[in-house]
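Predict the 3D structure for this chain.
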Amino acid sequence: MSETNPADRTLDIALDDPARRRMLQQLGLGSAGLWLTACLSPSAATATARPTARPAGMIGAGPVQLTAYVGVAPTGAVTIVSPQTEIGQGVFDSLARLIAEELEADWSQVTVLNPYADGAFVSPISKRQKIGGSDSVISYYQPLRQAGATVRDMLIGAAAARWNVPAGECAAIAGRVAHPASNRSLSFGELAEAATRIPVPASITLKADKDFKLIGKRLARKDVPAKVDGSAQFGADIQIPGTLTAVLRRSNTVQGKLKRFAAASVTSKKGVIALVPLDDAVAVVADGYYNAKSAADALEIEFDETAVEKLDSASIREQLARALTDEAGVKPFPFVDRTQKPPKMTPGSKAAVDAALEAAGKRVLEATYEVPYVAHTTMEPQVCMARVDSTSCEIWAPHQAPDTGHKKAAELLGLPMESIRFNLTFGGGGFGRKWELDALLQCLRIAKEIPGKPVRLIWTREQDVKHDFYRAAYRAHYRAALGADGSVSAIHGRIAGQSLLGFKRMGPPDFPDPTVHSGLIPNEYALGERYGDLATLDLPIPVGFWRSVSLSHNGFFAESFIDELAHFAGKDPYQFRRMLLAQQPRMLAVLEQAAQAADWDNKLPAGRGRGIAISAGFGSICAQVAEVEKSGDQVHLRRMTCAYDCGKIIDPSTVDAQIEGGIVYGISGALAGLEIERGSIKQSNFNDYPALRINAMPKIEVHRIVSDQAPGGIGEAGVPAAAPALANAIFAATGQRVRQLPVKLDGLTIPFG
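Done. Predicted structure below.
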């Protein structure tokens, strides 16, 4: 595929342009002609369409599959495969809508299917089929619209050829192609077969935004009816005759290894089929969950846990504190210098920052902040189903990285990728947890030992909490100097913690990991001279991508410190941020909208307080104002007011819901944390690791800035500003400054509900 980004190119590209040909091929639209197999029966579709199989058991399976993305039945009903895993973020509907918009499909006749792992669904922009970085709409916005427009023009071409009229006299409208001059029209279903013989158009024209009928509209999501009536298929819902269930018995520690087990202690128990030893667990396979779980609980087993028996929260905190002061162990990290045109990455100048701090004298503020390990706690724990034999494999899972999972499955089983079908189900939340391969590979290893039988692996909630890939604990320290006018003349930020990319061996050993430092010193603020460095700890605790990644901790660090700087300078926190964002009009507009909607300038009575925070990431901007009330010995979060700008949007309702969910996730992450004792996570379920409950929910208001900017990501954008907005509001109401999460106050508590 061309290294040129197709989204940055004109859409009127000659057919012989190799880059466009490769992109069309990637989209399942062929090279010499449209990859459009006009099949008239389910068996024909399975035999001739590429990829060779539709996901089994997905909702809305239709009789015809035309391309990897689009199918048209003789009735004119359209089936669209949404290429990304739906884990609650709305891409099942949103991505399908991009195709349907340009295709001019009748949305009421469109059925959407979950995808499967295949190169046809890899975005030509991101070059992956993964859910991560909130980039689904970003990376598919242009390609899927182009795919829909190309199919539309070929259907128009088929109609024009049948009527012997110029294609320019015809138009696609609501699932039909019309020739207004002769008052004739044909349904897409009547034209599909003929369209396979139409050459790929040399150029296509996408709709102007003003002509959108689906994009930007509040419409009922296509996945909602099935989720309401119970027919939606999540990871544990796939029903295949003869399915067996696997439950793990594993160590309670993060790196425990299997030492021995007594198979005879459970093999005679009801329903038990097999026991499969793994590196850190034994899988008990039975004829149902109850029998598998009962046998797993009764299994006599021993683990080697000596490697982590001295690991605990106190020792980790001590290591973080030491790392911040060990000058020999830190490395500088780069940031974006927006004073250069175009902006460039620069490491900053330590000498310039040190000089400015020295010159500032008493106008220097220092502060240290800390966050704990946190778990993902998706509502659906880890689950995967697989059937393996000597020549093939089929997988069903709600996975965020099916392209990687597909490849790793082939490597593990020694099978070619084309012999493995990886079906994606609905997922009950992801937040980065279902990017990991652990449950998938466990399931494959188990199923391999029971050839030909479908095996469903289900983790317990306790295992999900104790064996997560956590957001790491971090500790950060800032020093900043103020000028005589109250502006910031210099800032130094340092952070210590585990390297996510280092743990996953995804970067060189000395690489300054952006999943650790990105956002520690916000690029958008006018902060004068700046310099940042980090200290990396090598710890055995599994760490991974957690919703909003580096901004989940650096949002709290940076926005808390900016708030402290405002008070140190004797300025209102909102007005201080306005000053620092004076050269960032888009970000400033979001900040001002949030403050105005929250009635910031209207002073609150004693015992109540507001806090403000803003974050930019994933192509979007989100500002939040928290309002809290002190009542007796409790502090209640009463209101969250949010403004956001995520560029062009597909559906306002979906975006609002994601922002609201992000706020709840961010607040929950600020109020709960994990503790480690003798190498084990002490928490195990929602009883000791709670999420914000409905009776403690604040009133949430979201306000969208209408924007013609390119689409941004939204699934993670609501998280980073939530914790610092809450912490800053607590300070305003109580005078207690929150520098450590989870929030702990002297003589006060914050109820979860």
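Residues 6-225 form a domain with the Aldehyde Oxidoreductase; domain 4 fold (CATH 3.30.365.10).
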